[in-house]
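Hey, weird one. I pasted the DUF985 domain-containing protein sequence into the form twice and got a warning about non-standard characters only the second time. First submission, copied straight from the form history:
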Amino acid sequence: MNAQEYIQSLDLQPHPEGGYFKEVYRAQGKIEHQALPAQFNGPRNYATSIYFLLISGQKSSFHKINQDEGWHFYAGSPLTLHMLSPDGLYSQVELGQNLALEQNLQYFVPAGFYFAATVNQSDSFSLVGCTVAPGFDFADFVMPHADELAKEFPQHQEIIEQLGHR
């Protein structure tokens, strides 16, 4: 299948950070606000999961959430996760199916890290799943403008210029 066939078959919609997504699971149970760490402003479902598709030339702009986010590779070409840790370190991880090339079938981005994603090959796409626990809520989503993020991480201005939100 190609990207457009996946978008249509899975009923994916544009995502604010870039790419396309559809929520496919939201646990019915909730964790009460008082049982969660201070960064949460209310109760959260136990877990959530989405399909996420990124096409070559698109980017998932740098953003962060309050939870660890698990990325699971499904189809297409490899994808790179670009991460900025709270203490200013840049790292990247490649998701894909070629374990001999040290690609990862899954990877968890730690809570509080800014992260972005790019497709590694031209004229291609990457289809992944993203799992979040406690469950995702847009109240936990922070996507600063690239200029604002570059002030926080001036040593990484080049990658922020490429992958930051405009």
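That's the output from the first submission. The warning seems to come from a hidden character in my clipboard, not from the data itself. The CA atoms of residues 83 and 91 lie 5 Å apart.
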